[in-house]
Amino acid sequence: MSTALEHFKQICTIPHGSGNERELSNYLVRFAKNAGLEVAQDDALNVYIYKPASPGYENKDTIILQGHMDMVCEKDKQTEFDFATDPLNLKTDGDFLYAEGTTLGADDGVALAYQMAIIEDTTLKHPPLCLLITTEEETGMGGVIALDRNLIQGNTLINLDSDIEGEFLTSCAGGLRIKLTINGIKLSIAPGEVAYTLKLRGLKGGHSGAEIHKERANANVVMGRVLDLLNDKFHIGISSLDGGSKDNVIAREADAVITVVDEKAKAMLEYIEDIAATLKAEYAAQDADISLHVEKTTVQTKFMSDTKQKLIDLLRILPNGVVAKSCYIADLVETSLNLGVISTADNVITITLSLRSSVESKKIDLTHKIKTIAKVMDVKFSETGDYPAWQYKQDSRVRDAAVATYRKLYGVDPEVRAVHAGLECGILSLKIDDLDAISFGPNVYDIHTPKEKMSISSFEKMYGFLITLLEEI
Question: Which helix (H) or strand (E) segment is 451 a member of?
């Protein structure tokens, strides 16, 4: 077991969800200082660590090793866990490392663990290194946007934020976050109305960039369909709708509190069973565990019928999933939209979407389309967290070196490809002139879900590859 894996496990003891990175950022600063290295920390809690070249490599170009310190905080409903204070509960199953009931944070704890192992190993051969660790990548690239260019050394970048062994990424999509707000009015439920909570469960969810093409059910979209069917047949009321937890995660669960007149309740419950059976059949391949449960509850108010209809109509007409595939790169998703989060607070319903595209004009066009839908539906529109795509570079020294090193070590060529997920390389390419970049990492599965797991052998293999690449580049 390498020291890199031990560092990964240590990182998992320190809470580091997006927006809660201060403790981990300070820990990294202390770690670098204890190793005798120069280190800087900016106001956004980004960390810059500088390791001098090993003997004989002093005249080589500086290499930037980069990753982000924040993780997506997702947990099962039944798991009692506070991401703000609790250490992850690590478990192993054969070759796999996972966190019981929660996300593991291999995205991107892998990068930090590799960097820390390199910091403390004085036997390695490598050029001058600038180790760059950013914050709030998962919630809009806030850390990398706030980077101080004057603190970054070098223009050759190895990004350590990928999740398939043997894949080298050379470009990625850009994106932004869209928020739609419905300001509704609630009234008291009528005498004779009864209330139920609809619970959609059992979906796989996943990373809205890396897994959007797998056609997995989005709980928010499916719940919108269920509400539409029930409203059409029974004229239900809606008291609240809450689903998903992150805009960049395919929603796994959704809850809707609805009302119906008592004399229609029995028929509605039977119809819900029929809907559940239909969903089970439709998603048998990609979400076999999908389930729709109903429980009786009590509420005092519901949205007025025009607000209810506006919500249902909006959920039915909003695009979701793959919007377009690339005509130039086989099987690459070009543009997508993920209906990530729906939340109800008092009289306000908020819908948050994650939009991605590798073509800037397509990103702008889809944003305008959503804005037009909002205008027609009379809901508030806002956008934040706009970040650019990472464009493919025809000539790349770091890519050539990585391919040659991988072939030398393992006797096969890696796959060089683009990815639909967002990486910080696009923003870094705007900050660093003539940036030459590549991204790779070990096998990590079901990222951004509580089923996330990392292959230990792949983690070790790709660390070995990284240190060999630094020696040979």
Answer: none
Rounded Cα distance, 403 and 411, in Å? 11
Strand positions, DSSP E, 94-143: 96-99, 129-134
What is the crossing angle of helices 360-377 and 305-317, to 10°? 160
- Picking from 60, 39, 41, 61, the residue whose alpha carbon sits closest to that of residue 50 is 39
Catalytic residue chosen out of the listed positions 21, 137, 424, 436? 137
Confirm whether 70 is a catalytic residue. Answer: yes
Q: Give the pair of three-digit tokens for residue 310.
A: 């506006």
The whole-number pLDDT of residue 3 equals 94
Q: Which residues contact 331 (CB under 8 A, 6 or more apart)?
A: 213, 325
Q: Give one DSSP letter per residue of 299-349, joined into a string.
A: -SEEE-HHHHHHHHHHHHHS--EEEEE-SSSTT-EEEEEEEEEEEEETTEE
Q: 162-189: b or e for each residue (b if 16 or more CB lie within 10 Å)? A: bbbbbbbbbbbbbbbbbbbebebebeeb
How far is the CA of 291 from the CAs of 77, 207, 243, 371, in angstroms? 14, 21, 15, 33
For the record, the structure tokens of 415 come out as 């796959």
Active site residue 137: yes
> Residue 295: phi, psi to the nearest 5?
-135, 140
pLDDT at 209: 85
Task: Tell which residue, 297, 225, 310, 290, has the closest CA to residue 265.
Answer: 297
For the chain, the C-alpha Rg in angstroms (whole number) is: 24
Provide the residue count of the chain: 473
Query: Over the range 347-362, which residues count as b (16 or more CB within 10 Å of their CB) and which as e?
Result: eebbbbbbbbbbbeeb
Overall pTM > 0.70: yes
φ and ψ at 419, to 5 degrees?
-140, 150
Residue of 21, 70, 107, 161 marked catalytic: 70
Residues near 295 by Cβ (< 8 Å), separated by ≥ 6?
196, 197, 199
Q: Which of these, 337, 317, 345, lies nearest to 242 by C-alpha position?
A: 345
Cβ count near 260 (within 10 Å) = 22
Q: Which residues of the chain have pLDDT under 50?
A: none
Tokens of 226: 């269920």
- pLDDT, tens digit, 9 for 90 and up, residues 127-162: 999 999 999 999 889 999 999 999 999 999 999 999
- Strand 129-134 and strand 63-68: the pairing is parallel
Nearest to 223 by CA among 203, 208, 194: 203
Q: Identify the CA nearest to 127 among candidates 32, 66, 58, 64.
A: 58
In degrees and rounded to multiples of 5, residue 342 shows phi and psi of -125, 130
Q: Cα(234)–Cα(269) distance, rounded to whole angstroms? A: 11
